[in-house]
Amino acid sequence: MDDVVYDRAGTGEPLVLIHGIGHRRQAWAPVVPLLTPHRDVIAVDLPGFGESPEPSNGYGIEPALVLFKQLFTDLGLDRPHVAGNSLGGLLSLALGQAGLVRSVTALSPAGLWNRTQKVYAIAALKAHRALAQRTPPHVVRRIAATAAGRTALTGMIVGKPALLTPDAVVEDAHALATAPGFEPTAAQSRGDFRFTGPVTGVPVTIAWAAHDRILARPRVADLRKVAPEGTFKLLPGCGHVPMNDDPALVARVLLDGSR
Q: Residue ranges of the AB hydrolase-1 domain (predicted)?
């Protein structure tokens, strides 16, 4: 199979963490220390993102399901728990629908949108990537040195930019600007793509960031169609990528969802 770069630490039942489009496995760094006393945590770089090379079988949900099924086998994981943010949340739901995982926790998952919301979300993410590509790394570092600068660079993505470290902002901007998987992944959303589920037979938690500026929060009735027996939560004070905004809250949601 394609090489997938991952970090693994901790003890307990396995929990696989999947990041969003343009991000990397380090997105989970703020919550990993809170999870490892209770879970065997595997944070992956999706193919074409972070340090993982581009996939040999293309991008999209079906290739990702094949990849994760093989990765679980290679790592000796029998239906692990899985959690994801944004694109990672969508893939987590798809893994649950395919019966490949023990539980699903999706943080502001992509794909649960209408057409207008989808167009806005993809445009916003592309604009964020274009900014990262146009801004030289030394300028990003200078701007990221202040709380106001971190807000200017990341305020669309996180709820509390001042909590980010300057190094994280610089490294995330580089990962976003250079990810070869960004455009082909974004292209998968063309047409009327929408994830409708249903995800049944496994526990599902969908938690939405209260201050998500990328993806609009669906109505509970619509979430119920995706996960008929799901648990739905709100993440107060958090933006689209909530892990750094409130690590304790996100960790608690992940642990509760993966019981």
A: 15-252
